[in-house]
From TrEMBL:
Residues 111-192 form the LCCL domain. PANTHER family: CYSTEINE RICH SECRETORY PROTEIN LCCL DOMAIN CONTAINING 2 (PTHR31331:SF1), LCCL DOMAIN PROTEIN (AFU_ORTHOLOGUE AFUA_5G08630) (PTHR31331). The chain crosses the membrane at residues 35-54. This is LCCL domain-containing protein. The lineage of its organism: Eukaryota, Fungi, Dikarya, Ascomycota, Pezizomycotina. Keywords: Membrane, Transmembrane, Transmembrane helix. Gene3D superfamilies: LCCL-like domain. It comes from the Eukaryota. It holds the Pfam family LCCL. InterPro entries: CRISP-LCCL_domain, LCCL, LCCL_sf.
């Protein structure tokens, strides 16, 4: 049976059939009207997208300046300086400006409740001077806190938040400070350590100023995909232009991708877990007696050079930690790898705590106990029992 339609006007039939496939809006609207309606659709979509996105993380009004600050959501264990390895040589990955001229940064933050009460009771040590700290909220100093302090626990210690409620506040990041006093306030005991550290922070607003300013979260961002799909369907009903459709798709997709990548987290905040668990059986370096050149009347700079005994098989390198910041790392297989660590200092008020650890698979296995370089340029050494473990 012949199913080919019989017609004496094949061209008119084809033209009429193509016309019927177009959406009605495309045939009834003029080009000018299409441009106007598509522009209104785009502005409408962008306005709704921005408003729904901001509902997931409303800004914090700072009473003293009446400015809206973006709010960063912190988990209980997060810190601006999470670990020596995460922050790299000299802390360069966590300190925005390592040139010596530090620009203070103020930001809003939000913390969950019970960060102090539910502090993890694990055995992972955090290195603070000559201490290995475990089983407590990590807060160092106050009212100026060391950068590796847990931000939310420090906010409770400062009286900015109540641990049982959590909430919002304003935090100001600053540069190097050389001493951190320990105090016991609001049920949080902070650690005392007298060392230099490249990143610090404080809370410039009191508890009374912050309370009531914390915006309520009414997250409606779940509707964003549906808003984009609805606007896209309408846009495609109005225009058949391949160029216009391509621009629309790229714009919508880019907005969603940027939102997923950025979220509510500023790029300057490092969001990685704190120091990983280490094995008690991991080897640590055997450091030989160092060469020390102390200060003289003609030279106010002293220096110390460390060398190590033959490393065990299987390790790739060695790392040096000075005052809880990684200062140097050597990989043994490098063709021109040095065989020593060199550290110098000028006149300063506090001692240096220095540790060493072997590197395997790009990570430090375990840092040694701290040796102390005293102000009179004496080196105390590292525990012989620890080095033999």
């Amino acid at each position: 049976m012949d199913l080919i339609p019989k017609t004496t006007e094949p061209k008119k039939f084809a033209k009429r059939d193509h016309h019927l496939l177009k959406p009605e809006l495309q045939t009834r609207l003029s080009t000018r009207n299409k441009i106007v309606i598509c522009s209104i659709l785009f502005i409408s979509w962008a306005f709704i997208f921005i408003n729904l996105s901001s509902s997931a993380n409303p800004p914090l009004l700072e009473p003293s300046t009446s400015e809206n600050l973006p709010v960063r959501h912190f988990s209980c264990g997060e810190a601006f300086f999470p670990s020596p390895e995460a922050c790299g040589n000299g802390g360069e990955k966590c300190v925005p400006n390592t040139s010596g001229v530090f620009e203070a940064k103020t930001m809003g933050f939000r913390c969950p409740a019970n960060c102090v009460r539910d502090a993890p009771q694990d055995s992972t040590p955090h290195l603070v001077g000559n201490q290995d700290v475990t089983r407590r909220p990590l807060v160092i100093g106050g009212p100026i806190y060391r950068g590796d302090s847990e931000m939310c626990a420090a906010a409770v210690h400062a009286g900015v938040l109540e641990d049982a409620k959590g909430g919002c506040g304003v935090v100001k990041r600053m540069g190097q400070t050389n001493s951190f006093a320990g105090t016991d306030i609001y049920g949080v005991e902070s650690l005392s350590v007298k060392t230099y550290f490249p990143l610090t922070f404080n809370f410039p607003m009191t508890n009374e100023e912050v309370l009531g300013a914390c915006p309520e979260i009414n997250d409606r961002s779940w509707a964003l995909p549906w808003v984009s799909v609805g606007h896209t369907v309408l846009f495609f009903q109005i225009t058949a232009s391949a160029g216009a459709r391509a621009v629309w798709i790229v714009s919508v997709a880019s907005a969603h991708l940027l939102r997923l990548r950025s979220g509510s987290e500023p790029a300057e905040v490092v969001s990685v877990p704190a120091q990983k668990a280490v094995s008690d059986s991991a080897p640590i370096p055997n450091i030989l007696e160092p060469e020390v050149y102390g200060q003289t009347l003609d030279n106010s700079v002293s220096n110390i050079t460390f060398r190590w005994a033959t490393p065990p098989p299987g390790v790739e390198g060695i790392s040096m930690l000075v005052d809880d910041v990684e200062r140097d790392r050597v990989y043994f297989r490098d063709g021109h790898a040095k065989d020593s660590f060199f550290w110098k200092r000028g006149p300063q008020a506090f001692v240096d705590y220095i540790r060493f650890g072997y590197v395997k698979d790009g990570a430090v296995l375990k840092y040694s106990p701290a040796g102390t370089w005293l102000l009179n340029d004496t080196w105390t050494g590292i525990s012989a029992n620890a080095a033999a473990s």
